[in-house]
Amino acid sequence: MWTFDDVPAARIQRVVGVTIDRPWLDHLRRSAVRLTTGCSAAVVSRRGLALTNQHCVLACAQGVSGAAGDALAEGFAADTLAAERRCPGMQAEVLVGVIDVSGPVFAAGAGKAGAAFVAAREEALSSAEARVCRGDGRLRCQVIGFFAGGQFKVYEFRRYDDVRLVFAPEFGVAFFGGDPDNFTFPRFDLDFAFLRLYDAGAPARTPTHLAWSARPPAAGEAVFMAGNPAASERGLSVSQLEALRDVELPLIGAERAELRGRLIAFSEASPENRRIAAAALFEAENAFKVVRQRAAALADPAFMAARRRDEAALKASLAADPRLAAELGDPWTDLEALREVQADQFIVWRQLENAAGGGSRLYAWARGLVRAAYERTRPSPTRLPEFADSRLPLLEKTLLDDTPAPAPLERLYLEFWLSKTREWLGADAPATAIMLGGQSPEALAARLGASALGDPARRRALWAGGVAAIEASDDPMIAYVRRTDPVSRAARRLWEDRVTGPSERAAEGILRARIAARPGEIYPDATFSPRLSWGVVAGVDASGGTGGAFTTLGGLYARATGAEPYRLPPRWLAARDRLDPATVLDFSTTNDIVGGNSGSPVVDGKGEIIGAAFDGNLASIVGDFAYDGARDRAIAVSTAAIGEALAKTYRRPGLLKELEER
């Protein structure tokens, strides 16, 4: 997970035998894309065409479905530029510059603690973002913290707020095998889609893009992945891992399991329910497996013993440097001291602030509009960080784009969140009384679901009208957030004061100790920022030994049973005799992958794209805590299979021609 400004090229050459230089890296960086909806992509033509995964455009495909057809079940293909459909809420970003601002950020927090420490740092971060972007609307500047707050850099992105869907296959072939095959290999998914970046209403000019390769990957071949891993926790102390194991994961796991069950029941009620809940159920099933595997890793005595040995060695290394030890103190003891308040406040913070609304878009829009109205009356550096001037353009897009919020799904989310809030905080808790106002979760969800915020024109009026419009609004969801937001903000302040601030201070100390012990040898945890990983094409079997690294189109047909989740769409059944069964469909590699890497381009030593990552195996889930090259695998769909499908199943010669142009 190396950042592009700190890639150890000499080590790469030594390990996989490929020499990469700065022009090679810069070309890959300028071709890699971060999608603000939580995925990665790659520019693959001169006219802004971008390759990603079908599961990364599920919400967009749902939004373009209608009387003309179901883009999830039937796929989507735009025959002309005019037919390409805008994806609401999606922004594409390409990294163009990196500036280290650690010094000013550290200076801002010096001598402060708790909430004052957090506020001082956030003010410094906001000022740095504004200074780098200089008010240029084409840019998004974001300060990203690395090494758990031990380093800060401004990432300067070229942003494209107009992203349109060009092509997506049917969900049945993109997610063939469904939840049973998720996080497994062999895999038989054609999980790809094409988007197009637009600039001023026209396809963006993107002379820097990845060259398309139609050849299949070879076993043992060195491959590189450029993507945006969302989050990993490899730098956590043993105390923090134990808190995750004992406090956070049991609660989150129970929640994910119940939400998954509710969404399954909802989906089975009607075909329309199945369509509108497809993306939500995909996410819930994926999250459930992730939480279960993470919990299993932290319950493994051998895994935790290895982390304790690593921590003991780091402590011994620090003790051998009296000067640094005196300066840093004992950050591990500081983190241990937080365990009690974490256990006491985690569920309060989660229900009232971090996961408030339970996934409801109506609630998210209302809270964003209410908070933005009041925060924008203050100087930018003193606001909540997500409302700083440099971050308002993306927030405005997220709040005002014409994104669907299906009423039945909204009610499910709200009922579930309110019922869990009452259950976990307690029916008699003061916060529960405020959040439910004496109503049942079902009755309150029904009332809030009558909000008119599903109409983007209403949201635009509230955004433009500021505090006066918010205070005059009689929309039930706006009124609800006005009434309950003080409780949410209080939970946030307490968590930042007693957990976030002290944790970041301690993490900074541990990072300095780790860097002193292993200078130049470590990379930062994932932060949904552009990273490079390298590996080789290789398989792995269930016992951890070497297995097959490839699946084929012929294997896809052999696995099809005609029953879900192994049912192929009619178009694929009709195309069987036209396709080359030996075409490599999916392949596995030793690249380091976590959530957020979906859609990451997989390139060969020449920098040509040969695949798009869409998943990892079960072992890779534990990669959140530690990467194991012997067992962890990334899974990608090959460009060879994409090209074969475009030519012979979907008959898209124009799209193929654009891909093949150099």
Explain what you see.
By secondary structure, this protein is α+β, with helices and mostly antiparallel strands. It folds into two domains: 2-91 and 161-233 and 525-660, Thrombin, subunit H (Beta Barrel), CATH 2.40.10; 238-517, no CATH class. It contains 27 helices and 19 strands. The strands form two sheets. Strands 2, 3, 4, 5, 6, 7, 8, 9, 10, 11 and 12 form an eleven-stranded antiparallel beta sheet that branches. An eight-stranded antiparallel beta sheet has the order 1-14-13-17-18-19-16-15. β3 (39-43) and β4 (49-52) form a beta hairpin.
Mass-distribution shape: globular
- Estimate what percentage of residues fall within beta strands: 5-15%
Give the name of the CATH architecture of the largest domain: Beta Barrel
End-to-end C-alpha gap: 29 Å
- Count helical runs: 27
Radius of gyration: 25 Å
Number of strand segments: 19
By CATH, the topology of the largest domain is Thrombin, subunit H
Runs with pLDDT <50, length 5+? none
How much helicity do the residues have? 40-55%
What's the number of structural domains? 2
Compute the average pLDDT: 93
Largest sheet: 11 strands, antiparallel
Structural class, judged by helices and strands?
alpha+beta
CATH class of the largest domain: Mainly Beta
